[in-house]
Amino acid sequence: MKPSSNKYLQYLNPLELLQTKKVLQNNPTVPIVTAFKGESVLTLFTYNDTACNTKTTIKSNQIGHAFLEKDKKYWLNVDVINKQTVEEIGGAIGLDPLIIEDILNDYQRPKTDEIDDHFTCVLQMLFFNELSNTIEGEQVSFVLGENYLFSFQDEATRDLFTPIRERMLHENTKIRTRKVDYLLYALLDKIVDHYFIVLEKLSVQIEKLEEEITNNLADDFTMNRINNLRKELIYFKRNTFPVRDLIQSIIRSENIHFEESTKKYFKDIYDHILQVNDLSENYRDMITNIRDLYFNKVNVKLNEIMKFLAIVTTLLSPATVIGGIFGMNFERIPYLHNEYGFWLATIAMIVFPILLLLYFKKKKWF
User: Fold this and answer.
1) How does pLDDT run across 79-99, given as a tens digit for each residue?
2) Which whole-number Å values give the CA distances from 135 to 5, 211, 277, in the listed order?
3) Are the C-beta atoms of 48 and 70 separated by less than 8 Å?
4) Residue after which a domain boundary falls, among 244, 279, 297
5) With 171 labelled, which of 21, 37, 152, 211 sits at a CA distance of 20 to 30 A?
């Protein structure tokens, strides 16, 4: 899962950047060390055209080819991924070690693989945290077999698949009557459709920020908020842009587990992910424009201050000149000992700034 907004606080301490572990934590060549996150929760849906049974007491060591009957279809959902559970399930159905490694790696780039008789795909399920105004992700992995689909997700507190589970209980639905490749489509469709909701939350933050800057309500933290939004959008694009290639690889796949009649549904997901990518590009441009608008507002404010100081300096210049002339250390200065000299100098110090003000006003300099 992506950490909250506190992740940026690490950059306030330069010494933390020198830690090799943090620098290489997303390096795919570094061996994965998966901490024990708790016991996995397995939910098995056994279904066909006429019946659907749900079992939550199943253990990972019970899963295997002998357990999966040919005349039924299966969906095994694994919540809370730990290494032991994944390795037991992978060993039971003959998953390649590379696939198991991808499932255990929380920072995997969205992709598909076809190894032996398994089709696998990995992508991120994204959520918007309104408390911290950040995007958080949860990796979801799918393993598609002849009559089964295994899904692996890291937590069960936030789940987009509840509507799919409810549809599984109804008869004569396409999920029940079609092959398991349609179930994979339904799950991927839920993930991609939720990207629009995350983008909508981001757009609210962007519009709010733009309105504050336009109405001169920006504060000292406005630039930080712009940078944070930009980082969240970069994170969003990094996890959604490759999904286009993922769906396209499914459409072009000649894997026997995909029916040609099902691929038209994946084409619909492909259209949706293209829209997501277009919207994210638009929001990136909006953030760039907002940043430029903020800089322009700051520059305009600075120019106003500089103009005010320049006018004040110009208005004080006659008094400075007159005071400097009569303050020179000479024995004979005209009007120096005149009884009206002080008043004449004072009047000149007042009249000249007034004339300058009238001139500036006529030129529309303020």
Assistant:
1) 988 899 999 999 988 899 999
2) 9, 22, 16
3) no
4) 297
5) 152
Report how many domains make up the chain.
2
83 and 165, same domain (yes or no): yes
Can you give the pTM of this predicted structure? 0.80
For the beta carbon of residue 137, count every other beta carbon within 10 angstroms: 21
pLDDT digits (tens, 9 = 90+) for 46-82: 998 888 999 988 888 888 766 778 889 999 999 988 8
| Closest by CA position to 171, among listed 46, 44, 50 | 50
The number of C-alpha atoms within 13 Å of 55 and in the hemisphere containing its C-beta is 14
Same structural domain, 49 and 183: yes
Hey, is 58 helix, strand or coil? Answer: coil
**What is the DSSP code string of 211-261?**
HHHHTT---TTHHHHHHHHHHHHHHHHHHHHHHHHHHHHHHH---TTS-HH
Q: For residues 140 and 188, what is the distance between their CA atoms, to the nearest angstrom? A: 10
